[in-house]
Amino acid sequence: VQLQAYGGGLVQPGGSLRLSCAASLSIRSANYMGWYRQAPGKQRESVATITSSGNTNYADSVQGRFAISRDYAKSTLYLQMSSLKPEDTAVYYCKVTWGTEYWGKGTQVTVSS
Questions:
Q1: What is the per-residue pLDDT across 47-85, written as a single tens digit (0 to 9) for each?
Q2: Which residue, 40, 42, 8, 34, is CA-closest to 96?
Q3: Which long-range contacts (CB under 8 A, 24 or more apart) does 57-62 make?
Q4: What's the pLDDT band for 16 if we cut at 50, 70, 90?
Q5: CB 22, CB 4: distance < 8 Å
Q6: 90-98 vs 32-38, strand pairing mode
Q7: What's the average model confidence in pLDDT over 83-112?
Q8: What is the 3-state secondary structure (H, E, C) of the chain?
């Protein structure tokens, strides 16, 4: 199973980015999917998650600014990020669970003027 995360980059404060995580296996049967991030010198933290039933959960720091979604046809998980702040700077990882957890390689998001 491979997860390919992409879409990161350099963006100014207040800007937007959409991260994508393409899976080599259908995500329709996934139990749980999510986006996580790790800033320099900090532990990896959960940003947004979505269950198989569509229930979502967001970190307080991104609530109202980020939105997680999925496209079964494309077997892709998304994270729409808006109103980005410098403190959102981190490497972002996707994780998909089909009983076993699989992590994608990270994609760097840098928010800076």
A1: 999 999 999 999 999 999 999 999 999 999 999 999 999
A2: 34
A3: 61/87, 62/88
A4: very high
A5: yes
A6: antiparallel
A7: 96
A8: CCEEEECCEEECCCCCEEEEEEECCCHHHCCEEEEEEECCCCCCEEEEEEECCCCEEECCCCCCCEEEEEECCCCEEEEEECCCCHHHCEEEEEEEEECEEEECCCEEEEECC
Write the single-letter amino acid at 104.
G
Q: How confident is the model at residue 18 (pLDDT cuts 50, 70, 90)?
A: very high
- Per-residue model confidence (pLDDT) at position 49: 98
The number of angstroms, rounded, from the C-alpha of 66 to the middle of its chain's C-alpha atoms is 9
Torsion angle (degrees, nearest 10) of CA 54, 57, 63, 68 = -40
Let me know: does 23 contact 96? Beta carbons within 8 Å: yes
Are residues 96 and 5 in contact, defined by beta-carbon separation less than 8 angstroms? no
